């Protein structure tokens, strides 16, 4: 393995000069930098990550915890985090909690034992106690939350405007002629679910439509849950919703299948719109309308905020909650009227 010492010997420079040149330090002249970089490329020099971590007292590793890696939204967030982390010289380690609080606590313990430099996390839906994240902070490992907002915790958060997304999705259904609307929500103790439910209700109130408590249906973020809950909405075929907002990708996919299984025509008899706009959405029959979330950008901003805390080794003057905007993607599952 080619070392800094070898490059320095061949160029007749000190090891520290070579190191600063490779870091593009302003202390080193342009001609010297050029000589160092050319030889480093010629010799295929790569920094020793173990030596770097010892030198900097860091592992150059960022932990990521998501509820479900198979979910395309979380996949896009991970890609955004990795893009920024790689550019800044960090590696990532990915964990999935499977939406289990116990699994999440175990993942955090592993991150602590392995001394990751920081954590980006979307919390498990079951979680209520945040002590494991506080332990990380106390040990000097910063945490950034994304997607699922966390109350009563001092740190950066990157979320989307869930209220506005749900409001626009519901108003779209109303504009398509839906008057009897249902909302398939996730666990109501989660702020993200409260915001989406709030947006749904606000749209109904704006248009003087009834909010039927029995059609505000709560369940886990699972496809089989969305399927079962939708079938229950159509148990009485004489009185059923003509429009459904599904508050997550998994729930929406389950609802889409259920509508077809009970023999309802979509969107003529019931229109459907979901969240997160998975890649499979335009491939379904009919293609699924969605509220698209900027997952890649969310990952980028989360990583930037985290690395800034790692590099500065201290609390920022003010923690930020960044709120990104969503996009309404209309497809056949909800589009009853044709655009002119």
From TrEMBL:
Q: Does the keyword Transferase apply?
A: no
What is the superkingdom listed in this entry's lineage? Bacteria
Q: Which InterPro entries match?
A: Cro/C1-type_HTH, HTH_LacI, Lambda_DNA-bd_dom_sf, Peripla_BP/Lac1_sug-bd_dom, Peripla_BP_I
Ranges for domain HTH lacI-type come to 2-56
PROSITE patterns for this protein? HTH_CROC1 (PS50943), HTH_LACI_2 (PS50932)
Annotated SUPFAM superfamilies? lambda repressor-like DNA-binding domains (SSF47413), Periplasmic binding protein-like I (SSF53822)
Q: Which UniProt keywords apply?
A: DNA-binding, Transcription, Transcription regulation
Domain called HTH cro/C1-type: residue spans: 2-32
Molecular function in Gene Ontology: DNA-binding transcription factor activity; transcription cis-regulatory region binding
Task: Keyword check for tRNA processing, yes or no.
Answer: no
The name this protein goes by in its record: LacI family transcriptional regulator
| Protein source organism | Siphonobacter curvatus
């Amino acid at each position: 393995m080619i070392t800094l010492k070898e490059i320095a010997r061949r160029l007749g420079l000190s090891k520290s000069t070579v190191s600063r040149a490779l870091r593009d330090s302003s202390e080193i002249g342009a001609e010297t930098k050029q000589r160092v970089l050319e030889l480093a490329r010629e010799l295929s020099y790569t920094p020793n990550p173990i030596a770097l971590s010892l030198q900097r007292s860091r592992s150059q590793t960022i932990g990521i915890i998501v509820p479900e890696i198979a979910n395309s939204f979380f996949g896009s967030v991970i890609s955004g985090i990795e893009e920024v982390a790689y550019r800044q010289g960090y590696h990532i380690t990915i964990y999935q909690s499977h939406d289990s609080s116990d699994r999440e606590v175990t993942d955090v313990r592993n991150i602590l034992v392995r001394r990751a430099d920081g954590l980006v996390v979307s919390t498990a839906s079951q979680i209520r106690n945040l002590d494991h994240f506080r332990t990380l902070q106390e040990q000097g490992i910063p945490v950034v939350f994304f997607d699922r907002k966390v109350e009563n915790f001092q740190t950066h958060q990157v979320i989307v405007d869930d209220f506005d997304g749900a409001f626009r999705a519901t108003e779209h259904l109303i504009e398509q002629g839906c008057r009897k609307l249902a909302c398939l929500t996730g666990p109501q103790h989660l702020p993200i679910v409260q915001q989406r439910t709030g947006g749904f209700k606000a749209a109904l109130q704006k248009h003087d439509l009834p909010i039927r408590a029995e059609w505000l249906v709560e369940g886990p973020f699972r496809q089989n849950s969305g399927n079962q809950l939708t079938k229950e909405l159509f148990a009485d075929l004489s009185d059923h919703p003509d429009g459904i907002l599904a508050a997550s990708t998994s729930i929406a996919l389950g609802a889409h299948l259920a509508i077809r299984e009970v023999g309802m025509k979509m969107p003529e008899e019931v229109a459907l719109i979901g969240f997160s706009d998975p890649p499979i959405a335009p491939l379904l029959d009919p293609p699924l309308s969605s509220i698209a979330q900027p997952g890649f950008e969310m990952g980028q901003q989360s990583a930037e905020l985290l690395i800034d805390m790692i590099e500065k080794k201290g609390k920022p003057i003010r923690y930020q909650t960044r709120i990104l905007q969503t996009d309404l993607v209309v497809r056949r599952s909800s589009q009853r009227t044709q655009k002119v």
